[in-house]
């Protein structure tokens, strides 16, 4: 039964990630690699995307600009906020 649950969780995660944008996968993946949970990273992405419309941006074009720095700061602050809301 434990194997079936793990397999189902993997399938659902795969389906959810297939629906996410390239920018979302990059942000969430980078966040998770820094040690935050996927739940908190996704939460932070949603908060920042609601304000900065990340899905519509080409980060190759804005890399190093003030806009890029604002998004990075907003994302870091949102991760902290999501951890407070959701726990680790």
Characterization of this structure:
The chain has helices at residues 2-19, 22-33, 38-52, 59-62, 66-86. The chain has one domain. Helix 3 crosses helix 5. Helices cover 80% and strands 0% of the residues. With 88 residues, it is mainly alpha-helical.
In short:
This is Lipoprotein. With about 90 residues, the chain is mainly α. It contains five helices and no strands.
Number of helices: 5
Q: What value does the Rg take, in angstroms?
A: 14 Å
Helix content: over 70%
Q: Which sequence of SSEs, written as H and E, runs from N to C?
A: HHHHH
Label the overall shape: globular
Strand content of the residues, in percent? under 5%
| Whole-number total of structural domains | 1
List keywords for this structure.
88 residues; mainly alpha; 5 helices; 0% strand; disordered N terminus
How do the helices and strands line up, and which of them pair or pack?
Layout (H helix, E strand, L loop, with lengths): L1 H18 L2 H12 L4 H15 L6 H4 L3 H21 L2
């Amino acid at each position: 039964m434990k194997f079936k649950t793990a397999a189902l969780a993997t399938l659902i995660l795969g389906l959810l990630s297939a629906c996410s944008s390239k920018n979302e996968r990059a942000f969430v993946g980078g966040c998770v690699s820094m040690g935050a949970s996927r739940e908190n990273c996704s939460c932070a992405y949603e908060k920042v995307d609601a304000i900065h419309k990340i899905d519509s941006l080409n980060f190759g074009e804005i890399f190093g600009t003030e806009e890029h720095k604002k998004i990075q700061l907003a994302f870091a602050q949102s991760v902290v906020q999501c951890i407070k809301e959701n726990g680790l």
